[in-house]
Amino acid sequence: MVTLGTTGSTLLINAVDTITGGVGTDVVTLGTAGNTILAGALETLTGGVGTDVVTLASAGNTVLVSDLEILVGGVGTDVVTLGTAGNTLTVRGIEFLTGGVGTDVVTLGDTANTLTVGGIETLTGGASTDVVTLGTAGNTLRVTLVETLTGGVGTDVVTLGSAGGTILTGLLETITGGAGSDLVYLGATGNTVLVSGVEILVGDTASDVVTLGTAGNTLTVRGIEFLTGGVGTDVVTLGNTANTLTVGGIETLTGGTATDVVTLGTAGNTLLITLVETLTGGVGTDVVTLGSAGGTILTGLLETITGGAGSDLVYLGTTGNTVLVSGVEILVGGVGTDVVTLGTAGNTVLLRGIEVLTGGVGTDVVTLGDTSNTLTVSGLETLTGGTASDVVTLGTTGSTLLVSGLETLTGGVGTDV
Q1: Residue 209: which H helix or E strand, with range?
Q2: Closest listed residue to residue 264, CA positions, set 304, 311, 310
Q3: Tens of pLDDT along 213-250?
Q4: Claim: this prediction has a pTM higher than 0.85
Q5: Which residues have CB under 8 Å from 157's CB, separation 6+?
Q6: What residues contact 199, with CB distance under 8 A and at least 6 apart?
Q7: CB of 229 closer than 8 Å to CB of 210
Q8: Taking the chain, what is the end-to-end CA distance rounded to the nearest angstrom?
Q9: Residue 6, Cα to own-chain centre: how many angstroms?
């Protein structure tokens, strides 16, 4: 056991089991043979070429360390700064750890660790639960097997390791997934984050604003309020809880088993959508194709709707709609004025509640639903009324069509046959 005097010391030690610094500044270097030592009240501790295992004394320590292989904190608060040359070490029981200007590779020991880190390039958790907070200066690091990671006030850019895993995050600016399957939970404070390469992303109770990276992403999300895709192809599935969110720049969106309410962003969107219950367009031009499974969807403010291979029942929202529709089997208008143009390939559709209907260049066969309908039509080839009273006016361009089951039919200014 060595206790250093009060004036401060600089020394090289070998085969010492315990060293305690004095009130001055103590700079200690460990010998080359490798050392296992209990150290306390030192200001600087440098390891040798051997394997050095250092345990910090229980009173709490503030120390600059370099070239140690294993560093174990005591019961007090330990504030550790790593030397500038770069370090590779395992730590446990440390409360504050700050890297140097070199590359620092840190593994957390197999006891639970709760610590604040900064300036670390690679951080790997241990077998227990590790709770890590990033320092305030902003951090760019690779993280593996850490259970909870919270960013600081600076910009934090985190890449998840290749092993995959589950992590609770908060206040990070960028999260990039690794080669494994990554399940990322966003913390309850609300997050604005750029995400890439993550397989499952789960928001919390506050508002989460997520932008997807540019390379294209395939992921499942739930509990996210705002989701914006990147320039690549983004394929998003909504988790099996009810989701209410605004999306933009997504190419494929599939709903979950609960009720999903989606609003499209303002820039205009072109996407394939399946199993979403409510879809409302933004101020831009929105072109939507319905997935092959078929289903029922309430829509509004969309410019183009194309049905899939299944049977599609589409409701138009109450604000009134002007929309190009193709391949939809049943189309129901809302209380506003709905102006519908049918696509060019030809359509066979049952509709009700539409005020203005224009056919395309193909053969359009339209049946009116069993509620009263009052509408203006043009460009149709076959029109069949329902069981209620149907009042139809033909458009001004002239029409040639087969009609049946209508109560009132009025021609337009063109030639109607």
Answers
A1: strand 208-212
A2: 304
A3: 999 999 999 999 999 999 999 999 999 999 999 999 99
A4: yes
A5: 139, 140, 141, 172, 173, 174, 176
A6: 177, 181, 182, 183, 218, 219, 220
A7: no
A8: 111
A9: 56
